[in-house]
Every structure is written in structure tokens, then in C-alpha cells.
Amino acid sequence: MTYKYIEVGKTLYQAVSTRTPRFPPRVAYVMLNSLFEEEREPITVYDPFCGNGVILCTAYLLFWKKIKKLIGADLHPVVLETARQNFQWMKEQNALEERLCAIQAYKTENDELKRSYQERCRLIFNHAQQIHLDVKLLQHDATQIQEHLASIDGEIALVTDPPYAYNDHWQPKDGPESADFGPLEPFLQQVAAAPNVATLLICYRVNQPIRRLLETYFVVTLLGGTKGRAIYRCQPK
Asked: I need a labelling partner for 162 at 20 to 30 A (CA). Which of 29, 32, 109, 124 fits?
């Protein structure tokens, strides 16, 4: 099993009528692999902007042995339901059959491509049958995350791709080069104040000066970048 099986709109469901961008599974893999490249006790992995669930599905399928609990949250009910559907078809035969039928209905005459997506879904389903991991999905506003973090036992690793980086509605008030990051800053303030957050791995569009804001609250390491995104590891000061 590799991250190449995990693709929104191909194997995974994609939320309709939203502005949620397709998050590259390769980027999700790089973020999670950096978290687990050193031996550590199983940890709770939490994506507070989970969208369609690409980071969550990648963690579930490829890193489940190293995870204590998997939590995803999103304020948008449509994308949250899509994430639920993606986990459902990985575990339930009836839901898998529905997913295969949905792929068959894709508007393309390339039947070989459809069969390829369907076969990947079957492989994901078979792989998921060996996975025993608690997954929790909830509707939650990440700008009010502090109390929820306090309710989680043990250390937490936040691994996320905020929608503010790509959604014009959430752009800084003074333009893309501004240091005003709107609703992202209260989120970061609360994460930095949470004693059980061991690591924040965050992906953000490279042309925005996000690092200066991150360094206000964390010790920051740039892990690299891909597909127009930069990946930062943020740890408590």
C-alpha cells in the first residue's frame, strides 16, 4: 500500500459544491513520514481542517501502527460527511460497492481508467480490514480549539493543511503578501498554549509569509516544499 492509491476524486470521494482544493496525497505522506521517522510511542494524530480526509486516510492506511487515535474536524458539514464516507467504504462491503458504482458512473469513456480506480479501491478495502484504529470525526471550529485539545488524553500531533492558504475567503485582509492571517492566528495561539500538543505540522502556500507568524509561537523548521506548498514543523518554545 502506498500514498498513490489515495486520490480525491479518483479513489476517494470528493465533496461537491465546495471550494475545498484537492490536497496532494504525496504531501500528506511527507508530513506524516516526518512525524514518524523517529521511534516514538503511539500518539494521537489530529487534523483540525480535515476537508475530504486526505491526511486522515493517509495516516490511517499507512501509519496506523504508530497512531493511538485519529481525529479529524471541519467546520463545513459537507466536507466532513465526505470524509466519513471515505472511511466508511474502506471498512464496509456495502459502502465499497456503492463507491465502485459511483466510479463506474464517472463521465469518461475510458473504461480502463475506471477499472484501475475500482481495483485500487478494492486493494484499499482489503488492506483496511487488518487495521484496528479509533477514528473520530467531528464538526468543530478550529479557531475555538483550546477546550477540545484539553479534553484529549496524552500527547497530540496536529497535522493539517488550513483552508485559509488556498481559499480567497480566508486570505489576509491586506493581500497575499500581508502578515495579517485573519482566523489562522487565534488557532495558532490556542495550539501554542496547549500543553499536550507535541508537534504541529502545517502546510501552507509558499508565496505567503507564514513563517514569521509561526515563529511568534513556535520553534519552526522548514521541512521542504512541493506542489506550491511549504511544510513546517512547529514545536513548543
From this structure: 124
User: How far is 164 from 75, CA to CA, in rounded Å?
Assistant: 13
Name the domain count of the chain. 1
Distances (CA, A) of 81 to 16, 17, 67, 125, 137: 11, 13, 23, 19, 9
Q: For residue 169, what pLDDT band results from cuts at 50, 70 and 90?
A: very low
How far apart (Å, rounded) are the C-alpha atoms in residues 118 and 102? Answer: 10
- 9 vs 160 pLDDT, higher one: 160
- Taking alpha carbons only, the member of 193, 159, 162 closest to residue 55 is 159
Does residue 168 belong to any structural domain of this protein? yes
Predicted TM-score (pTM) of the model is: 0.90
Q: Which domain holds residue 210?
A: 17-80+132-236
